């Protein structure tokens, strides 16, 4: 199975190609990257990897993409590219939780509960907790950080992007938890993302939307102006905007 995997949810662009039968893996080179330039770099990065591997787009069996949470703009970029490529090829689109992939990409001793976390501002975070078998023990959601701390098991270890969560470190230590900081370029391993997609369910490219875990500011403003709208009327919001 030939798999293209990519993540645009954070500061770094992570792209990879995996041949699941041979184990051959090609990864995007971060040396020339600039933060938050995913919209201009992702397609050239994919083209370069395909050329290196000697593959064509039509050779792809799966397209694995982080579905959120994460940067609103970053997630839209990834979702758009994944939807277009899947609709133009026979590849299956496989969206996966950003938090799950962060947890699976981190090498931490098995006795620890892994808590991948993304700063959502205003002392809020996107977070979940996973056991040694990568099963969720605390649900993935948009948390007030103090509420999250009260929910976690004692043996929890936070995992987050380097320098992204400085405001939380003292509270983590006071609560008796551990934390691990990882550079954006390795926070999500595209090889791990690809391997997770092998046994994961695919999605209809026409219906797939990122899992933001909260509404954008623009959508919340729109809902205030349209009190008759039901929660989930995302299509109406997009159409009007």
From TrEMBL:
> What Gene Ontology terms describe where this protein resides (cellular component)?
cytosol
Record's signal peptide:
none
Q: Where does the record place the Gcp-like domain?
A: 36-150
Q: Give the GO terms filed under biological process for this record.
A: tRNA threonylcarbamoyladenosine modification
Task: Tell me where on the tree of life, at the top rank, the source sits.
Answer: Bacteria
Q: What is this protein called?
A: tRNA (Adenosine(37)-N6)-threonylcarbamoyltransferase complex dimerization subunit type 1 TsaB
- What species was this sequence derived from? Oenococcus sicerae
